[in-house]
Design a protein that fits this description.
22 strands; 4-stranded antiparallel sheet; 13% helix
């Protein structure tokens, strides 16, 4: 009989549920990062550990910093990656914020020098927003204010603070370092809202490499070994599929007619589940193999490998 708990009350997404052998005894534990901002670890239906998170989680990954060490657990929430070892908090990594547009910085400098009042600053921010400038959260907060007094108080309160764009994490995965074994060393790959893909160092506490994407990633999968030959396949929010090798985005993207809700890397193929009830299979170079049209919406996808045995 399967373990079950009808009153667990867990609410989570596919990317926030994992099975992992955290203690090295050969028995997997269930890790669930819920929408209630809690990381819960179960053995069967017994709750072993519970940790509070500072923001709603978007992804959970289990990685081995070293072949001789127990696995670490990385939980992405907001711009942070919370790393746990031995079921205890170990480190909090913060994604670096992005730079604000120079036009927006200039407007806030004018307001700080009393060259622009609240309504004037608001009008100018609307103007540069309509011209295509991506605004920081500070400018967006100012646009929500209606009274002149509230605007002036807000400008005074933020005077002297550096203007920067928030860089929350959108998805996360891992890549094997040099051994294709289940417990071989691997490194975290963190994707952010500003279009950055960070390959972390083995401990997950610092950025090892940075790759810039044309649009924000929504999903990422890897194949190969980081120290030998690897690929990172990224599904962006605008329905395009990009391939990364050696810190470079390769060739033209695969363009889809609908957003991706599930992605699998199988050998040299990319299998994509889309929001329009369709599953597509593409070669890694962009050639389309087949499509399957389903009678219902796709909620999640997973790769099930079959073992082949040689006979004599």
């Amino acid at each position: 009989h399967a373990w079950h708990d009808p009153v667990a009350g867990l609410k989570s997404f596919t990317s926030c549920v994992r099975l992992a052998d955290l203690s090295g005894d050969g028995e997997s534990k269930l890790l669930v990062a819920g929408t209630d901002k809690r990381l819960k670890i179960y053995k069967g239906t017994t709750l072993l550990s519970e940790n509070m998170l500072l923001a709603a989680p978007v992804s959970v990954c289990v990685f081995y910093p070293d072949a001789k060490k127990a696995p670490s657990v990385g939980v992405a929430a907001g711009p942070f990656v919370f790393i746990y070892r031995n079921l205890r908090p170990y480190y909090k990594f913060t994604c670096p914020p992005g730079n604000a547009d120079y036009r927006e910085v200039d407007l806030w400098d004018q307001a700080a020098k009393d060259q622009l009042d609240g309504p004037g600053l608001q009008r100018e921010i609307v103007r540069i927003r309509d011209s295509g400038v991506a605004l920081t959260s500070r400018s967006l907060d100012l646009l929500l204010l209606e009274s002149v007094q509230a605007m002036e108080e807000f400008i005074l309160a933020t005077r002297g603070q550096k203007l920067s764009r928030a860089n929350p994490i959108t998805c996360m995965t891992t890549v094997r370092k040099d051994k294709a074994t289940p417990k071989g060393p691997c490194q975290l790959i963190v994707c952010t809202e500003l279009g950055y893909v960070y390959i972390m160092d083995p401990t997950g506490t610092a950025i090892h490499q940075t790759i810039t994407m044309p649009s924000p990633p929504a999903m990422a999968r890897t194949v190969g070994l980081l120290n030998v030959d690897y690929r990172i396949t990224v599904a962006s929010r605008d329905g395009k599929i990009y391939n990364i090798k050696d810190r470079e985005v390769l060739g033209l993207p695969i363009e889809l007619e609908s957003e991706v809700v599930g992605m699998i890397r199988a050998s040299k193929n990319i299998i994509l589940g889309c929001r329009n009830c369709t599953v597509h299979c593409y070669h890694v170079k962009g050639r389309k193999h087949w499509s399957v049209y389903l009678p219902a919406h796709i909620l999640a996808m997973e790769h099930l490998e079959s073992l082949s045995y040689a006979t004599s």
